[in-house]
Request: fold
Amino acid sequence: MDNSEKANLKEASCHQAKDVCFVSSFAFAVLLYWLVNYAAWVNGFGQTEATKFPEKNWTSWAIGDFLKQKKSPDLVFLGSSLMLVPLAGCDADYTHKRIDGSQHHKSLYFEDVFSRKSGKAISTFNFALPGEMPSDADLITQFLLRHEKAPKIIVYGVGPRDFLDNLLPSPSATDPFHSLSRLGSVEEQASLFFPDWKERLNYELSKSVYLYGLKQDITCKANQLATSKAEKYIPLPQTEKRFSIFDRRALMPEYRPGELNVGEAFFRPHELGEREAFADNLIEYRKRYKSLKWDTYITQMRSFTDLMNVARARGIHVVVMAMPITDINRSLLTKQAWDVYRTGVRSFALSKGATFIDLDASKKFALSDFMDTVHLHTGGGRKMLDCLADTLSADRPTLVALGIKPKGVQLASGLRHATAARSPKVIKAARSKARETRLSLSGNKPL
Amino acid sequence: MEFNSLQYLVFLPTVFLLFWICPHRLRVPLLLVASYVFYMSWRPIYGFLIAGLTLGNYFLVPLITKTEKHKKLILGIVVAGNLITLAIFKYATFGMHTLKEGLALAHINWREPHLHILLPLGISFFVFEFIHYAVEVYRGKEPVKSLPGFALFASFFPTQIAGPIKRYQDFIPQLAIPAKFKWEYVDEGMQQILLGLFKKVLIADNLALVVQAGFTHPENFSSLDLWVIVYAFAFQIFFDFAGYTDIARGSAMLFGYKVPINFNLPYIAANVSDFWHRWHISLSTWLRDYLFIPLGGSRGGTLFTYRNLFLTMALGGLWHGAAMHYLAWGAYQGVLLILHKEYSKMLVRVGVAEKLLSSKIYHAVSVVITFHIVCVGWVFFRAENLTIAWNIIQKLAQAPIELAHFSAAQLAILQIRDPIIFPALVLILPVLMIAQPVVDWLNDKRFYLSPPWPVQVTVMVALMCLLTIFSPDTSPRFIYFQF
Reply:
C-alpha cells in the first residue's frame, strides 16, 4: 500500500477534520453534567424521606409498622422465614383468623403464653423477614432498635442457611438490604456489604454521583407522575373486571418479584389434620449448601457478632435461638459445615452474654412438626414458642431486662446493670469492642 | 461483559487510555489482549475456540493463493471447517431434535443424546467474517500478512459479539494507520455510545416488558392488543440491535476505527426489498455476496433466481437461531421478496402510471403496508415456537372484526397501569413511528453530519442524566447476543 492510499484510508477512518480549533463537546458535556448534579444536590432535587420506600415489600411494611408504634416493644423477633412462618402462622391458629403478612408484625400467641408463664404482659414486634440474613438483622438493630425504640429483648432465630447460603452473592443482594440501607450509612461496613468490586463501584458511584444515588426515588416519583398523567389523558376503560395485582403477577412474574401489597400474603388458620402436604425443598437446599463458602460464613458471623455488640451497648439482651431443622435437611450439610455453624453460633452468642437456646439439639421437634425440610408449620411453631416462653420465663438475664423480679435475684442490681449499659461511655466502649471483633474476624480463615 | 454493564464502564476507558498512551506498534497487540479479556470474561474456555479458528483461517486461507489447481478445494475445506464449527456449537442440538421428530413420524423411537453445548457468544458473527475473508482471497484479494491484525479483525471487542459483520479490506488497513489522538474521536464515539445506551436501556428494555407479557400469554390479550404488542416488538428489536450497533461503532470510534453501519431507518422502507437494504445491512450484504451470488444469484431464469432468493433468506433466518420459527421467519422473508419482484413486474405489465408510483400518497401507503408485513414476520421471529406464532397470527387476523365493534374496553394494555409502559404505548409508539420520517428528513438536511455544538452538548447531558436516573439495576441481554 502506497502513501497516498494510506492517506485516503486515514481520511476514511477518521471523522472530517475541522480547520477551526476544536473544543471537545463531550468534555464540555461532562462538565455540564457535573454541574447539573451539583445543582440538584444543592436544591435537594428528588430527595424523599428514607422511610418513603419506592417499593412496598416485606421489609418496608415491617419498618413502617415499627416506626408507627408509639411505644417500643419489649421484645423484638429477628430471623428469616424460619421465624416468620411459624410466628405468623401460629397467630392465625391462635386468633382463628387470616393474618395478613404485610400488616401483622407481632406474636400474639407468644405474648399470651409468656404472660401466663411469667406473670407479666409484654409487647412484641416481629422483624423476621423472608430472606433476612444476619447482616440484615444487624442493620435492623443498628438503624431501628435504638433510642426510644430500643426493645428490652431481641430473640434472634438462626439456621444454617443464614451463614452458609451459596446462593447469596453478597450481603447487599438480599431484599431486606435494599430497604434497610436507606435508613442509615453503611460506609463503615462497605467492605463487608460490597465484597465484589462491581458492587463496591456501584455503591461508590451512588455516593459520589448525586442523581445516581437517588435514582430509585426519582424513578419512583417519575412513575407516579406518569401514572397520574396517564389517568388524566388515557382514562381507564370501564370493564367488568379490573386488572389486579394477581393478574399482573401471572402475566409478568419477573416484574417486581419482591413487591408485597396488602391482602397479598395471608397466613391461614389450620384445623388439626388440615395442613398442607409436606413440601420437599431439598433441591433448593442442595444448592444453598453446595459448599462451605467461607466468605459468606465469615461475613455473616461478623454481622452476627456486631449485632450482639450493638445490642449489648444499648442494654438490649439478646436471646439466640438455633432453630430446629429436619434431619434430612441437615444431612445435606457436610460435617465441617454443620460444625462451624453450630460452634460459631453457640460460642459467639455465649461470649457476647446472650442467652443461647439450642432448639435443634433439644430433640423436641420431629419431622411431623415441619411444613418442609426447614420451616415449622403452625403446630411446630406453637411448640417452638412454648419452648421459648418456658426458657425465657426462667432465664434470669431476660427477666432482669424485662424488669421482672426473678427468684433469688436482686432486681435493683439487674436494673442498674441495664441502665448503666445504656450510658454513652458504655456504648462507646462496646462499639470499639465491636470494631476489634470485626478486625479479628477479617481474613478468610475458619473461625 | 455486556456493553450496558459496570465492567464495561471500567473496561472501555481503561483500554482507551492505554491505547492512546501506547506507541502505534503496541496498539494492535493491546486491543487484541483487551478483546480476548472481553471475550473470556464470559467463559474463558471459548477463548480457545476463537483463537483456534483464527489460527486455522490465518494459515489455511493464504494457501488458496499458492495454487491455482487446488484453490477451490482449499476454499471448500476452509469454509466447511468454519461451518462445521458453527454447526457443532449452534445446530447440533437442533439437528438431533429435528431428526428425532422426523424418525417419530416414521414410528421410530430414538432417544436423542443430551448434548451439553453452550453456544459461544458471537460465533455466528466471527464465523461469517472468516468465510468472507476466505472467499475474498479466493476471488483474488490479498491475504492478511499480520497475525495480530488478523486476530484482531476476528476478535475486535466492539463488534465481537453481535457485529456489525466487518469486511477485512475495510478494517485491516485502518490498523496500519499511526493515528494521533483527536477529540473528535471521543466526541463522536461518546455521542454514539450514549445514544446506543439510550436506545437499549430506555426504549428497548421498557418495551421488552410488554413484549414478554404479550408473547408469553397471548391468550390474555385481544387482537388489537396483540397488534400493539407486535408493533412494540418491532421497535424493541430495532432499538435493541441499533443500540448495540451504536455502542459498538462508538467504542470503535474511540480508537479511531470505523466499522460499517447496520441500520438506515428500516421502518420507512417502502417495500420488503428496500427494508433489507436498511435492516441489518452488514448481514444482508454478506448474504448477498457470499450466499446468493455463489448460489447463482440472478444469472439464471426467474425460477432459478427465486429459488436462490428463497434459499438465501431461509438460511439467513436459520442463521439467527437453531429453531423452526427462525427458519419460518427467513422463509417468510424469502417469499415476500419473491412476491415483491412479481408485484413490481406486474406494475410494469399493467402499465401503472409512473406519476402514481412516485406520488407521496403511494409512497406513504407502501411504507405503512411494508411495516405491517414486516411486523407479521416479527411474530415468527419472537414467538417461542411455531405453534405460538401461528396462534398469535390467527388472533392478529381477527383485528378487523374487533375494529368493527371497537371500544377501549377491548384493550387490556389500557387496563394495566403498572408498569406504566402498557398504557403509555398508545403515545410512545406513534412518537417512535413519526420519529423515523423526521430523522429521515433531518438526514436529508445533513443535520447529523454537523449538528450545532450546543445541540450536541445538550443532547449528551440530557442522555447522561436520563441514563443515570432511569437505567435499571439489571437489564435484559441484547437480543442479538443469543445469535
